[in-house]
Amino acid sequence: MAYYVTTPIYYVNAEPHLGHAYSTMAADVLARHMRQRGEDVFFLTGTDEHGEPVANAAEREGISPQELADRNAAKFEALMPIIDATNDFFIRTSDPRHAEQVATIMQRVYDNGWVSKGTYEGWYCPRCADFKTERELGPGNTCPIHEIPLEKEREENWFFRLSAFQERLEELYEGQPDFVVPDFRRNEAVSFIEQGLEDVSLSRPKLKWGMPLPWDPEQRMYVWFDALLNYYTALGFAREGEDLSERYWPASLHVMAKDILKFHAVIWPALCWAAGLEPPRRMAIHGFLLMGEKKMSKSLGNVLDPFAVIERFGADALRFYLFREVSFGGDGSISTAGFEARYETELANDYGNLASRVLAMVERYRDGTVPLGAVDATLSEDFEGVVERFSELLDRAELTQALEVAWVLVRRLNRFVEETRPWELAKDEADPARLDEVLYNLVEGLRVTTLLLVPYLPATSETLLAALREEGRGLAELGSRPGGQKVERVSPLFPKID
Ligand SMILES: [Zn+2]
User: Fold this and answer.
1) Cα 287 to ligand 1 centroid, rounded to whole Å
2) How far, in Å, from the CA of 173 to the mean position of ligand 1?
């Protein structure tokens, strides 16, 4: 089956930071997991390049908006291999192929009668590139996100007739309770809809850095419309000479942070209907990573800079920490000290040591060949149904809970080592069959757990699966292996912090 997952396209008025890495890594975990399930995956990310904030930032630097967009888009594109993202395409909204399709689609929206002309007056935040309704305003008419005072602006605009989709949106949310996950984010979207939808401004006459409306080129399209459409337009030109929209549309999942929920969960499905497109199937909304506590680590200072962490500890460690520390969906605090603590206790000790010990024991006691052993009944009980549980959680984008399922297995395997004490079984070889069995079960447990962890720890799992002589990466054929394969020792997967 086709599985099409997207990140938001990132705004090029600034450089990539941890939040961008977080959204992208989340989408990447899901893309990798779905590939392991044999799905036909397409994973899209990219940059959002129009609008006033880009024009303003460029002006401050004395360069053109396109120059600024080119410079920062290159940085976002370079981020992807650094965080080990396996995106299939990187879309830029200043791509003329995108513009061409946006013009076609928006003309269709106009022809279908979903656009009207009117005067807009409202509180405009230039940094959000968005008007705020009265009930969204912060104290003293400020932007609730940027906490800057807003100006009341009045202008002739084209409007998208969002209000006409009130009932259809209500039906969508009723009929598809998991259209937005987690639930509390869904409730935010529903309550926004239930308060009554107003038409939204579609164009701005003042804006210079944006796409002209096909039916009124004096007006430029409000950046959100051109941006949202990227999810669809990309499929038209991601592969030279091929239109992937039949194969991948509607999108299976949009991943994003909570600050852009309204555009995606309310306006985007309506825009799809207006354009005669099927809306996406689901959206997963995550919270903000808060650097509140400022607990300092020796090696990383007090700000968790993704590039510094990756340079020193690798992308796996960062992916693991963020999805482990902050319950995916909610806001959560992170710190460099917290990173180091989890790196040492969980990655280096729980998992890295387990892997080293198991492989070392197979080498020492069985010459590096995994014994042909029987399944240990108590241990196999704890692995029962684990792939299904793990997959169900990731179907709902429960990244933290799925990781916990895998980590319970890591801890269980450590306990199994302590319970069975293979080094004592090896002493007199009184019961060689039991030692065979223990080593076999440890290798199998490590193999299965590591296959589950592939999306979270792509580089580490590759090293370990190679050492375990596991060639498959899929979950369907996970099964059990009989033993008999040669394995290799590995150097520490997560070296100690000096
Ligand atoms: Zn704002």
Assistant:
1) 17
2) 27
pLDDT in tens, 50-94: 998 899 899 999 999 999 999 999 999 999 999 999 999 999 999
| Distance in angstroms (rounded) separating the CA atoms of residues 343 and 496 | 9
CA geometry: angle at 106 spanning 103 and 107, to 5°?
80
Q: Is 298 a catalytic residue?
A: yes
Please say if 143 is a catalytic residue: yes
pLDDT of residue 291: 86
Instruction: Give CA torsion, residues 384, 387, 388, 391, to 10 deg.
Output: 160
Name which of 359, 375, 385 is nearest 351 in CA terms.
Answer: 359
Distance in Å, CA 52 to ligand 1 centroid: 12
Instruction: Please give the Cα distance from 213 to 202 (Å, whole number).
Output: 9
Residues near 433 by Cβ (< 8 Å), separated by ≥ 6? none
Strands (E), 231-282: 253-257
Catalytic residue status for 427: no
Q: How far is the CA of 129 from the centre of ligand 1 (A)?
A: 7
Q: Which amino acid is at 62?
A: G
Given the residues 50, 143, 262, 272, select the one marked as catalytic: 143
Read off the amino acid at residue 329. Answer: G
Answer yes or no: 208 catalytic. no
pLDDT in tens, 247-271: 999 999 999 999 999 999 999 999 9
Contact 343, 312 (CB under 8 A): no
Angle between the N-to-C axes of helices 230-237 and 96-111, in degrees from 0 to 180, rounded to the nearest 10:
120
Q: How far is the CA of 132 from the centre of ligand 1 (A)?
A: 9
Question: What count of residues does the chain have?
Answer: 498
User: Phi, psi at residue 475, to the nearest 5°?
Assistant: -95, -25
Q: Which of 117, 152, 294, 298 is catalytic?
A: 298
Q: How far is the first Cα of the chain from the last one, in angstroms, to the nearest whole number?
A: 47
pTM above 0.85, yes or no: yes
Task: Pinpoint the alpha helices (H) of 370-431.
Answer: 377-383, 386-395, 399-420, 422-428
